[in-house]
Amino acid sequence: xxxxxxxxxxxxxxxxxxxxxxxxxxxxxxxxxxxxxxxxxxxxxxxxxxxxxxxxxxxxxxxxxxxxxxxxxxxxxxxxxxxxxxxxxxxxxxxxxxxxxxxxxxxxxxxxxxxxxxxxxxxxxxxxxxxxxxxxxxxxxxxxxxxxxxxxxxxxxxxxxxxxxxxxxxxxxxxxxxxxxxxxxxxxxxxxxxxxxxxx
Length: 200
Description:
The protein has helices at residues 2-18, 25-36, 44-56, 86-96, 106-114, 121-149, 155-184, 190-193; strands spanning 23-24, 60-65, 80-84. By secondary structure, it is mostly helical. The chain has two domains: 2-107, Orthogonal Bundle (Arc Repressor Mutant, subunit A), CATH 1.10.10.10; 121-193. It has a three-stranded antiparallel beta sheet with strand order 1-3-2. Helix 1 (2-18) crosses helix 2, helix 1 packs across helix 3 and helix 6 (121-149) packs antiparallel against helix 7 (155-184). The longest helix has 30 residues, at 155-184. Mean pLDDT is 86; it is low at 68-77 and 192-196.
């Protein structure tokens, strides 16, 4: 199940980037790490099997080598350029519109957030509210566990537990700012949010 979710996250991100235009694998990986770097680094070992699956299912197609005009015998392998198909465009729009519980999870929320510029406002708001609710539940659990175990934890473990709680609290505050801006119809400001989303 976890592997299926990872594949979905990566395919969603690939479709989103190819929606902007064709890319070869090297550039695609670089942009993926730019988009998902806060959440997860992408290796060629995970990217190329994903691209192979997406080719097989018709979500993307090869658009020829990126350096097809290079002289022969240059000693370089031609980089394959990938482009979105009509099916891939439809799938990307379908995933953009998905505001269900999976969209609130750590990795998938990050991809949704990266493509919020192409997402309808009501969907953005539903995902932000869902994510905040999910983290408020996590925060309550962390506080409860910390209160119950405080006497049994050494200083280092207690510091780590407190750091996890602080991270979730910061993300809840950050989400609340984004939600208020979304309701007011103002674009997000890095100065007013100022906080990275918490990691697991």
